[in-house]
Amino acid sequence: MTNPTSEPPVFFVRNPEEFAYVASRLEECDECVAVTQSLSPELVAGGYRYGIFPWFKHSDLFYWFSPLDRTVLIPTHLHCSRTFAKRLRQAARFRYSKHDCLLFVDKETKDVIRACAETVRKNQPETWITSEYIDTYGLLADLGYVHSISVHVNGQLVGGLWGTCFGKVFVGESMFHLCPDVSKIALALLCHLSSDLGVDLIDCQAHTDHLQSLGAGTMSRATFTHLSRQLYDEPLAMSWSCLRDRPLNDRLSV
Fold it and tell me: CA–CA separation, 203 vs 58, rounded Å?
């Protein structure tokens, strides 16, 4: 394994096992810690064991990150404002404003991923979710490691989130909304389901004021890496497959 830069180091990774070496040198690194020439389910699984994730592609290289301060959400710490709590109570009754509303787990994960890639965002002209990411995380979805929560209003997909789950850590990859608050509703459902699943930690990766307002906090890189390795191989209390095939609005509670 070669190091294409001298200070701070950014390591060139060729196979998943080499992420262990990168993890052993994190104290020397800035937030970008590695690059790879390809993206694959095996590389993603290898990096996530140490809290290292791919974020974007540039000049045919994929760049992998380990933030100095990690934004995380403890599922039981979700904060609901009075207005949002009212919205959740309504969603629990299968309604969004005056419309029908249904919430699903893993109903159309690949559609949610594509919707996140295609949604235009303020001050973000391009998406990190390129075709390589869609293909790789689609394969991980087929293997049972990528999951989604989708929100339907009047039968239309209007919002949701998707993420990667290894052990008891859910890595929130992206979310989107076409109607106000629907991605927040999806996050609230994820938090409520986490106690049944046995998910202890939701990794939000990067800080946003939006996530902070919902109760997310920060961990140091060292703390997160240690905790991630502990939880990575821990078995869940319940399979994600048990949550499929029916609307889950009634699992919301405020």
Answer: 24
